[in-house]
Amino acid sequence: MDVMPVITKTELARNTRQVVDQARRGQPVMVESYGQEQVAIVDAIDYRLLRAVAAYGAAPPHPAPISDE
Questions:
Q1: CA angle at residue 42 from 38 to 47, to 5 degrees?
Q2: In a domain, 63, yes or no
Q3: pTM, whole model, 2 decimals?
Q4: DSSP of 2-69, one letter per residue?
Q5: Domain assignment of residue 36, yes or no
Q6: Res 30: pLDDT
Q7: pLDDT at residue 64, rounded to an integer
Q8: What is the pairing mode between strands 6-8 and 29-33?
């Protein structure tokens, strides 16, 4: 797995288009401020997939169907 690049909020402000293009190409970017991670910029499809996986993992397990046999 590739290492996610980390940029500052200032770098994001100066290079917004390039950062968004990078995320859309599948390379997420972490934005930090004062050395603390603030947000991750990811492609919209990746975000939706992550949310779906998280929701699936948080759902209670379905009980096994009862057999008539």
A1: 105
A2: no
A3: 0.76
A4: PPPPEEEHHHHHHSHHHHHHHHHTT--EEEEETTEEEEEE--HHHHHHHHHHHHHHHSPPPPPPPP--
A5: yes
A6: 98
A7: 72
A8: parallel
How far apart, in Å, are the Cα atoms of 47 and each of 12, 42, 54, 56? Answer: 19, 6, 11, 14
- For 41, other C-beta atoms within 10 Å of its C-beta total 19
For the chain, 69 residues long, give each residue's pLDDT as a single digit of tens. Answer: 578 999 999 999 999 999 999 999 999 999 999 999 999 999 999 999 999 999 988 878 777 777 776
- Asked if residue 67 is part of any domain, the answer here is no
| Distances from the Cα of 54 to the Cα of 16, 43, 45, 47, angstroms | 28, 17, 14, 11
What is the model's pLDDT at position 51? 95
39: domain CATH number? Answer: 3.40.1620.10
